[in-house]
Amino acid sequence: MEEKTLHRPIMVNGVIKFLIQKEDGLYIDATLGCGGHSLAILSSSRNSVIGIDLDPDQIRIATERLSNFMERFLPVQANYRFIDQFITKKVDGVLFDLGYSSYQLDNPVRGFSYRENGPLDMRYGKHGITAYDLIENRNQDEIADLIYHYGGEHNSRRIARKIKEKKPRTTGELAILVRKSFPREKGHKHLGRIFQALRIAVNKEMENIEEGIIGASKILKKKGRLVIVSYHSEEEKLICRKARELELKSLTKRVVTPDRIEFQENPRCRSAHLRAFER
């Protein structure tokens, strides 16, 4: 994939500012994606990076993109939830950029986008249940609960009932179902909430985040940095709670948001919130 087709990594200046404290350290990019953050870290210093991603396609793209840095870059296909089980040495910093990547969103086959028709999948990796499996196997109340808690959708009961009645198999079918449920409103805001909720549930994102933060705190050196970019309120609440429980020092008195220039370069960063902590 050509460099120009890859979106600029989210809040890269803030990530570098808060994460990098030395010129020859070891850093973990726990959500490697297409390698944008790792590229910035490797290009700006002599630091080494271990890049983790569950998606083999992302590993392949990032490895190609970072081919000039292979002596300082190690890709690992794994779930960051278990970071302390396969990273056996202390590190200077860990980065989490939560959620899906632009590459995954733009690929209809992955089933993340309501703008393109594709299978109702939404998995980051190649294993486990799909969004269709979840709809098929969960009852109406369970689907309503996850749409409400993970998507903040107040019409969750109504949507869950229609989902169980129609049992959509594709993103297009689900999008039509939601739009028809709100004929007098702009359906995209409801679509965003519902797709977000299903994606979080399919990938067990909240559990992964909690365990990932605990694991990261175990492998950080003293004064090591933990930087997390999140995209919705439930993630933020969880991050702040775990940081307090683990007695991590907050380096950001208030949440850091994208500046105007970054928003112009990549509008998808609009909901990004950065927080940084020190062990």
What does this 3D model show about the protein?
By secondary structure, this protein is of the alpha/beta class. It has two domains: 3-97 and 205-278, Rossmann fold (3-Layer(aba) Sandwich), CATH 3.40.50.150; 116-203, Orthogonal Bundle (DNA polymerase, domain 1). Helices cover 45% and strands 15% of the residues. The chain has helices spanning 12-19, 36-43, 56-65, 83-86, 102-106, 131-137, 140-151, 156-166, 171-181, 188-203, 205-219, 233-245, 260-265; strands at 26-29, 48-53, 73-77, 91-97, 220-230, 249-250, 273-278. The chain has a seven-stranded mixed β-sheet, sandwiched between helices. Strand 2 (48-53), helix 3 (56-65) and strand 3 form a beta-alpha-beta unit. 46% of the residues are buried. Residues 1-5 have low confidence and may be disordered.
